[in-house]
From TrEMBL:
GO process terms (BP): axonemal dynein complex assembly; cilium-dependent cell motility; regulation of cilium movement
Subcellular location field: Cytoplasm, Cytoskeleton, Flagellum axoneme
Domain (Dynein regulatory complex protein 1 C-terminal): residue spans on this chain: 280-319
Presence of keyword Coiled coil: yes
Species whose genome carries this gene: Candidula unifasciata
InterPro entries hit by this protein: DRC1/DRC2, DRC1_C
GO CC aspect terms: axonemal dynein complex
Name used for this protein in its record: Dynein regulatory complex protein 1 C-terminal domain-containing protein
Coiled-coil zones: 129-156, 294-321
Superkingdom classification of source: Eukaryota
Keyword tags: Cell projection, Cilium, Coiled coil, Flagellum
Length: 374
């Protein structure tokens, strides 16, 4: 019994062991398969992540390169625009600098000319003053000599030398000499004062004239600047026709006259002045062209106004002809003809009340207007 029981237990154990082994093998196979599936899924996920990462990286790289190219293009465009703007600004500043330099040179040239004139006058006045000083020195020397002679004569009188006749002659001579010297001195002094006064007046007049000339030049410069600005504005507002054919061509007669004037030897100064005015030739041509256009437009406006008035008059006549009222009937209307009007007006009131009014003949206005126009 015990052995049977052991056998039975051993069989049960073997059966349970086999069942457990089978379950273990089955579970092991399932785990291996699940592990293999999970590994495949992980590999797929890693591959997808790598592909996605590479796609994102390539897209980001492409976007970065595109942005880099766009930024470079914008930078180049900005540099080009800034270069053009700076070039224009530099050109404007250079033009302003040249204009200011030209104006400054002109003003300095005028001032230098005025300074040279004043310097020449000053040198001349200095020479005159030196001459007058020499005259004064010579007169003072003569006065000292005469005073010395006078003192000597006085000492001679004190000592009783000489005769009375010689003394009278010397005294008269000295008196006449003193009067002459005093007269020459006063005359020279008056001349010097007059020269100084005349020089000061000339200097004041020169300063006033130079200031007036500077103001006039500034006005002319301002006017020229305004003309240039207006010319620039007009140039921007030019039409295509004006840009292609801006000016009229001078006639042969005008060209011959210009050649004859240029050939004349006596008008050299005029030719030089005309050379300075050649820059304004296009301006005056443009101005004359605008005046001619204005005259043509005024004539066209007058003709259109006359035509409009005529059409209004014809339209009024036509409207008067198609509208029948007392005012129109009483007025003279060439488009409306009424017959038997006088007889109807002369009949007594009783007759007009008993019978109807006579028929009125009306002519069509279009027919009459066509005849009038023809």
């Amino acid at each position: 019994l015990h052995n049977e029981r052991l056998d039975m237990i051993s069989r049960e154990y073997c059966q349970q062991l086999e069942m457990i082994c089978e379950e273990f093998d089955l579970e092991r196979a399932m785990l291996k398969e699940h592990h293999h599936t999970e590994m495949n899924n992980i590999d797929d996920i890693l591959y997808a992540m790598d592909a996605m990462h590479q796609a994102d990286e390539s897209e980001a790289l492409a976007e970065y390169e595109m942005m880099e190219v766009e930024i470079k293009n914008k930078s180049l465009e900005g540099k080009q625009a800034l270069r053009l703007k700076l070039g224009t600004k530099i050109e404007e500043l250079w033009q302003q600098f040249r204009q200011m330099l030209h104006n400054c040179n002109e003003i300095n040239e005028d001032r230098r000319t005025a300074f040279d004139i004043i310097k020449q006058k000053d040198d001349k006045r200095s020479k005159e003053i030196d001459i007058n000083n020499r005259k004064l020195a010579r007169l003072e020397k003569q006065i000292r000599q005469l005073r010395a002679k006078l003192r000597a004569r006085t000492r001679g009188y004190d000592k009783g030398e000489g005769s009375a006749k010689d003394d009278d002659e010397d005294e008269a001579f000295n008196r006449a000499e003193r009067m002459r010297l005093a007269k020459d001195f006063h005359q020279t002094k008056e001349e010097i004062n007059q020269v100084r006064l005349h020089a000061s007046e000339k200097l004041v007049r020169l300063i006033i004239d130079s200031s007036k000339a500077v103001k006039e030049l500034r006005k002319q410069i301002d006017k020229a600047v305004s003309v240039l600005k207006l010319a620039e504005i007009c140039r921007k507002l030019e039409t295509e026709e004006e840009k292609l054919v801006p000016f009229y061509v001078s006639s042969l007669g005008e060209q011959k006259n210009l050649k004859n004037v240029a050939v004349e030897p006596s008008s050299r100064l005029l030719a030089e002045a005309m050379q300075d005015c050649y820059g304004l030739e296009n301006f005056w041509k443009r101005y004359n062209k605008v005046l001619l256009d204005k005259l043509s437009l005024d004539k066209e406006k007058d003709s259109l106004t006359a035509e409009n008035q005529q059409l209004r008059r014809l339209l009024k006549q036509y409207m008067d002809s198609i509208s029948v009222n007392e005012q129109v009937m009483n007025q003279n209307n060439p488009l409306l003809v009424v017959k038997n009007g006088l007889t109807s007006c002369k009949m007594p009131e009783m007759c007009t009340c008993l019978r109807q009014a006579p028929p009125k003949t009306v002519i069509e206005a279009a027919h009459v207007a066509r005849q009038l126009l023809n």
